Amino acid sequence: MNPSINRTVTTIAVSILCCLSTGDYRAEAAETIRINGSGSSLYVMKPLIKAYTKAHPKVRIEMSKPLGSSGAINAVIAGALDIAVSSRVLKQKEVAAGAVSREYGRMPLAIVTGEKVPVTDITTTQLEEIYLGERRAWSNGEPIRLILRPESDIDTTILEGLSPGLNRALKTAHSFQGMIIAVTDPESDKAVAAISGSLGAAALPAILVEKVPLHVLTLNGILPSVHTLANGTYPLGKDIRFITTKNTPGAGLKFIDFIFSSQGRAIAEKAGVLVTTGAKAGK
Amino acid sequence: MKTQTRSIARITTLLVGAMTIIVSILVPAGYFLVSYQYMMGSLDTQAESSAQAITRLVMANPDMWRYEEVRLMEQLERRTTIDIPEARRIIGLHGQIIAESSAPLTPPVISRRHYIYDAGSPVAQIEITRSLDHLLRETIFVACGALLVGGVGYVVMRRLPLRAIQQTHQSLEESETRYRSLFESMKEGMALHRIIYDTEGKPVSFEVVEINPSCELILDLKRKSVIGMSGNEFFKGALMDYFSEIVHSAETGESLVFELQGQEKRRYFTVSIFSPDKGKFVTLIEDITERKKSDEQIQLLAYYDNLTGLPNRTLFLDRLNHALAGAVRYGGNLALLYLDLDGFKDINDTLGHAQGDLFLTMVSQRFLGCLRRSDTLARLGGDEFIVLISYTGEERNAAHLAQHLLEEIAPSFEISGREVYTTASIGISIYPDDGRDADTLLRCADMAMYAAKGAGRNGYYFYSQEMNRKAHERMELETSLRHALEREEFFLEFQPIINASRNCLVGAEALVRWQDPDLGTVMPDTFIHVAENSGLVIPLGEWVLRKACEKITQWREAGLPPVTISINVSGRQFEQRSFTDAVHDILEETGADARYIQLELTETSLMRNADTTVCALHKLKELDLRIVVDDFGTGYSSLGYLKNFPIDRIKIDRSFVMDIDQSQDDRSIVEAIIAMANKLNLQVVAEGVETTVQRDFLLNLGCQEMQGFLFHRPLSEDKFIALLRDIQLCSASFS
Predict the structure, then answer these.
(1) What ipTM did this prediction achieve?
(2) From residue B125, how far is each of A4, A82, B2, B199 by CA, in Å?
(3) What residue of A is the nearest CA neighbor of B75?
C-alpha cells in the first residue's frame, strides 16, 4: 500500500474516532454549526446565515476565515467542521473518507480589474495575450498587473478551461518571476481592488454580497450574471456545493435544508448564485 | 649513486603518490562535505523560514490552520530553486502528514526539520527532504576530475623531478667517469691530501687521501699502501720541506710549483700544488727526469764536442766573453793558447778516422791533465784545440803551460797496438796586450799558432814579439835553473851583520849565487823570480838551507867560532805543508846547531795563511830556530801578528834605510818600527846600510844591528871564514 494513502487512512480513522468520542457532546451543543469553505462560497453564506440565525436564534453558526474547498473538506472529514462549502467536486479519497457532496449551483466568475482601468470588455484573445505577457499595458499606458491564483486553485482551472490558448497562457504567467499569487478568494479580491492596473477573476457574490470595489469586465461582450450564466452565454462559472459526513450534526443538516429551501435559494440567487438543484444529492 | 637515485626515486614516488591520493580523495571529499554542509544549511534555513511562516498562519488561525491547505501548500511550494527536487511536509506531532509537496526523490536523502509553534508550544514540524543523488553525481564528477588532475599531476610531478635527477646523476656520472678516466690515464702523478691540524687548529702535517696509477708508478708503491700515509712518509717526507708554502697555497689559492729530486738519484720531478677544497690540496707530480736528460743532452750537443766531451767553440766563446768581462771588472790577464796537432792528417790517413778520433780523445785527456779546473780546454774542430787561462801575475805562466802541454803529449800514444807520436804548435795571445775582445784574441792566437808552425812546429809562439822573446828567455832560464840544480851550479855567499855601536859580528845572511857555465855568476834578482813562478824555488830553497846547515857544521868542526846564519825562506817554500819536517830532517842530516840558524820570512808569506803560519812558526821554534821578519814595512803589515807570532827579529827593509837621512817619512817609519820592536822586546836589524849617515841615524834611533855595503859586501865562503877568524863576535849574537 502506498505510504501516503496509509497515512491518510490512519488520519481519517483517528478523526472518526475523535468524532465518535465527542459525538454526545456535539449533539448536546448542536445549536452551534461550524461551516467553512471557499472564499467566494462563504460570501453567499453570509446572507443565508443571517436569515437562518434570525429564524433560529439559538443556533450559532461559526464561520471563520475561508479555508478553501480542500481545507474545509478535510476539516469536515476530520470533524473539525460540520459543513464545508466547496467549489469543486469531491475526490475519490474524500468520498472514501465519508464525505458527502450536495450540489447547489454555480456562480459567474467575472473578469475584474481595478476601478481605474480604462476598459469595460475583454476578449479571450486579449486575455491570452495578457497572460502570455504579450500585452503588458492598458490603453492608458498603465502596466497590467496580473493577480494570479495558485495553479491548483479552482479559479485557475476554470480560466484555463476558457480556451487552450488561455490554458497555456496561464501556465506561462505562473512561470514569470514576481507575479502576485493570491491564495484565497478574499485575498484575490482585495488585491485586485487595491492594486492599480490590476486584472484578476472574482466570483459575482464578491461584488453583490461583499461589495468589493471591483471593475467587472464583459467577456467577449457578455456581462457575467446569473442570467448569462444560466443561458450559457457566459462561459465562466464556479460551482457551489455542500459537503457533509455522516457525523454532521442535525443542526447542520437542518441549516442545509434551509439553504436548499426556496427561501434559501432566493437568498442565494440574490447573492449571485445560479441555484441548479433543489433536492439532496450525493456523489 | 644508483642506490641514491633509486632512493630518491622511491621517495619521490611515495611523496607524489601521497599527494595524488590526497588530491584525488580530499578534493571530492571536500567538495562533498562543503556541498553537504551548504545543502544542510540551506535546508535548515528554508525549514526555519517556512516554519516561521507557517507559525504565523497557525497563530492567525490556531484551530483551523491545519485545514488551510492552499496556504500551507503555497508555503510548501515556495522554493528558492526548482532545479533540485525536494519533498516538503508538515507533520503533526504524532507523525501524521498535514500537508505535503513531494517530488520523487532518489535515495539517499537528507532531511531537516523545524518546529511550528502556537503560543510557544510546538504543534507540528516542517520537514524538508532533499536527495543527495545530485550531489553524489557532482561529487563523482569532481572525483573523476580530481583523479584525472591527480593522475596527470602524479605523472608530471614524478617524472619531471626524477628525469631531472636522472639527468643530473647521468651528467655527474659522465663527468666523474670522464675525470676519473683523465685522473687515471694522465701521465702525471696526482695525489689528493688532507691537511692535519693539531688541537689548536695549527696545520702540522698531511695525509694522503687518493692517488692515481701514475703516482703509484712514480712512488713505486701500491695505492693501498700510500693512502693514509703521513707527510713524513709520502715522498720520503720531501714535501714537508715545503709544508708551510703548501698550507699558504691551500689557504690563499695561490699556485705553488717547485722541483724535487726523487727518492732515487738522477730522478727529478716538478710538483705543482693547488687546492680543490678547504683543508685539502692536490699534488701534481710530473717526472721531468727524461726532460732534464734531454736538456742536458741538448746542452751537451749545443755546447760540447761530441767526440772529446770538451766545450765546443760556442761554449768556449761564451766562457771567453765571461772571462773578458771579469778581467775588465776585476783586472788580471787572460791567455789563449791555440793548439794545432802537427801531422795529424797523416795520423788520420794512416790509422783511419776512427783511430784518429780515438787519438784526438787521448790527446785531449792529456791536455786536460795539465790544466787547472778554472782553465778551459775546448776543441774548435779537427785537430785544433784552444786553452783559456786567467792569471794575475806574469805572462810567463802561459809559456810555462804551453811548454807543459807540449811535454805532456810528447810521450807516445798507443793506438791499436801501435805507438803514435805527435807534437803540437801553440799560438798564444794575451789580454789585454794583444787584444781586448774575443775575436781579436782568437785571431792573434791563431796567427801565433801559424807562426809556431812556421818556426818548425812542436813549439809555442806569442803573438807579441817582445813577449815572445821574453818568454823564451824565461823558459830558457828556467831550463837552465833546473839544470843548475841538477848540476849544483849554485853556491852561497855570506853578508855579515854587524853591531854598529860595538863594531862586532852579529851573524851573516846566506845569499845564493848561480855560477852558470855560459853566463858566469848570475845574481838572484835575475833568477829568483823565475824560480818562484816555476816552483824551482822550493828545491832551491831546500838546497840553500841544507848547504847553510852543512857550512855551520863544517865551520864548527873546523873550530871556527859559532856564528848565526840567516837563511831566506820563500813564500812558496814556507807554504809547503812538509816545510817544518824538511827543516827538521835537514838539521838532523847535517847536524847543524839550530840555535845558530834563523829563518827570514817576508811579511807577505807569513800573513798569507795566518793560522797555519802560527802553527808552523811554533814548530820551528820548538826546533830552536830563530825567526826574522824580512823586508818589514813593505808588505801587508798587521801589527797584531807581531804579538801572536813567535818572532825574534824584524829586519827593516832597505827602502826605508836608503833615504833615512833625507826623508822625514822614512825616518819616522824607521823610528816607529824601532820603538815598537823595543816595546815588544824584539831585535831590529837594518839592511842596506851603505853610508855612515844612515848608520848614525839608525844608531840614534836605537837600531844597532846593521847589514850593508858600509860594513861588508856579500863575502865568499873563504872570505867569510877569514873574517870570522879576525873579527870579534858579539857575545850575545842572536841570542
Answers:
(1) 0.72
(2) 17, 27, 70, 87
(3) A183
